[in-house]
Amino acid sequence: MKEHRDKMHEEIKIRLESNAWDQSVAGRILDARKSRSEKLLFSGSVVSLASAAVAIAVYIMNFHLVTPYSVNGQITAYNQSSVQDDYISYSETSSEIDTLINESYPMR
After folding, report:
1. What tens digit of pLDDT does each residue of 5-58 get?
2. Do 68 and 81 meet the contact criterion of CB atoms below 8 Å apart?
3. Does residue 70 contact residue 76 with C-beta atoms inside 8 Å?
4. Rounded CA separation 108/94 (Å)
């Protein structure tokens, strides 16, 4: 048992006096910190890209639902009623003009 303890103390003494061992431990610590910070940056960028994609999708869907025209440029049902009202008033005027022309034609 004493033999193992002496061996352990000798290894500890060698490592404490060795600069190479200090540098290897310091290098591993720095690598661990660097990988941890890279993981944090990567996860932050993924979250920000996902939130930007969701914000753009919500903006597009909101803009699409608010506009009075569909994708193909067709008028929506709300505007079709006003177009039909204009057509009805135009057809009444058109029939009046047709009557006027028919009455004035024999006078010619």
Report:
1. 888 988 888 877 888 877 888 888 889 999 999 999 999 999 999 999 999 988
2. no
3. yes
4. 21
Token readout for 79 is 């505007």
Three-class secondary structure of residue 75 per DSSP: strand
Q: How many CA atoms lie within 13 A of 26 on its CB side?
A: 6
Written as six digits, the tokens of 48 are: 């920000």
Q: What share of the chain is helix, strand, coil (3-state, %, to 5)?
A: 85, 0, 15
pTM over the 0.85 mark: no
DSSP string, 37-98: HHHHHHHHHHHHHHHHHHHHHHHHHHHHHHSSB-TTSPBPHHHHHHHHHHHHHHHHHHHHHH
Q: How far apart are CA 16 and CA 104, in angstroms?
A: 121
* Separation of alpha carbons 76 and 73, rounded Å: 9
With 0-12 / 13-18 / 19 or more C-beta atoms within 10 angstroms meaning exposed / middle / buried, residue 5 is exposed
